[in-house]
Amino acid sequence: MNVINESGILAIATRLQRLSEQLRKDGFQIYKANHIDFEPKWFPVIYTLHFRPLLSVVELAAEIGYTHPSTISLLKELEKEKIIRSKKDKQDERKRLIQLTEKGKNLLEQMQPVWKNMISALEELTNTSNNIMKAITEVEENLHELSFFERTKRQKNTV
Questions:
Q1: Backbone angles phi, psi at 102, to 5 degrees
Q2: Helices and strands counted in the chain (H then E)
């Protein structure tokens, strides 16, 4: 045990970040082993555009649950790699519409069989007595009802 593990619930964000980083690192190795040049951090954009082929930056940010600046940063990387392209919306020239390029679509096709294997491995990994996906959903719903900050404010002797 280390101090972070021993700190219990106080270190939940740190432990979730640690878990996320390990899964991303392994994900990168999985893609690399399958000769796919792909960064796991790009996944939410690629996956969303697979199901919603043309979205504005704002719509995409809302769909993946990232801030607008974080989304823009990812989109710049993906555009540089020629995986996505953007174009101005004909109805509203202030809006940029995002879509996969042919390279992006080909990449998606390469990744789909790998995703099937990843899903199997992740199901095996998370098949525990406590369903982590259900727990994450419940916590997200709780946060939507009342934020961590607001819950802390309700306590005595705090903010």
A1: -60, -40
A2: 8, 3
> Is the separation of the CB atoms in 57 and 98 below 8 Å?
yes
- For the record, the structure tokens of 65 come out as 């649950």
Amino acid at 128: T
pLDDT higher than 70, residue 159: no
- DSSP class per residue in 24-85: HHHHHHHHHHTT----GGGHHHHHHHHHSSSEEHHHHHHHHT--HHHHHHHHHHHHHTTSEE
62-89 mean pLDDT: 95
Q: Supply the pTM of this predicted model.
A: 0.84
Give me the half-sphere count of Cα atoms (radius 13 Å) on the Cβ side of residue 72: 6
| CATH classification (class only), 3-127 | mainly alpha
Q: What is the domain partition of the chain in residue ranges?
A: 3-127
Q: What is the overall mean pLDDT for the chain?
A: 93
Q: What is the Cα–Cα distance from 144 to 32, expressed in whole angstroms? A: 37
Strands 55-56 vs 96-100: parallel, antiparallel or unpaired: antiparallel
What's the mean pLDDT in 66-74? Answer: 95
Could you give the CA distance from residue 129 to residue 53 in angstroms, rounded to a whole number?
37
Q: Where are the beta strands (DSSP E) in 18-115?
A: 55-56, 84-88, 96-100
User: Identity (one letter) of the amino acid at 2?
Assistant: N
